[in-house]
């Protein structure tokens, strides 16, 4: 399963009301570190298919979701479980580090 693009209007339905844990990536097209972790997140989305959903929120197009989460810099990653944030981290990281973070959080 590929990552899912989420907008301000679909954030609650896709993230907060999800039956499975959700990794939310707040990113922007012009952000180098965001593009750097994109492929790793795509792979993790496939690795965790059915167990964890990975979604991407473009902060330029969807500023309300980013503001509601207090995002000040990108990439900003959050893990939601049962509609609540259980963990978050900022900045780029290799796939192995992201995978460890997801495993610890879910």
Automatic annotation (TrEMBL):
Disulfide bonds join 31-34. The keyword Electron transport applies. The record marks 25 as: Deprotonates C-terminal active site Cys. The record marks 32-33 as: Contributes to redox potential value. Residues 1-106 form the Thioredoxin domain. The keyword Isomerase does not apply. The active site is at 31 (nucleophile), 34 (nucleophile). GO terms for molecular function: protein-disulfide reductase activity. GO terms for cellular component: cytoplasm. InterPro entries: Thioredoxin, Thioredoxin-like_sf, Thioredoxin_CS, Thioredoxin_domain. Keywords: Disulfide bond, Electron transport, Redox-active center, Transport. Belongs to the thioredoxin family. This is Thioredoxin. It comes from Cognatishimia activa.
């Amino acid at each position: 399963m590929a990552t899912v693009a989420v907008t301000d209007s679909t954030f609650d339905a896709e993230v907060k009301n999800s039956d499975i844990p959700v990794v939310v990536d707040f990113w922007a097209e012009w952000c180098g570190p965001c593009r750097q972790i994109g492929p790793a997140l795509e792979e993790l989305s496939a690795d965790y298919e059915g167990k964890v959903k990975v979604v991407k929120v473009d902060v330029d197009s969807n500023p309300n979701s980013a503001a509601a989460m207090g995002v000040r810099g990108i990439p900003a990653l959050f893990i939601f479980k049962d509609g609540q944030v259980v963990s978050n981290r900022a900045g780029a990281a290799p796939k192995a580090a992201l995978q460890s973070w997801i495993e610890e959080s879910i």
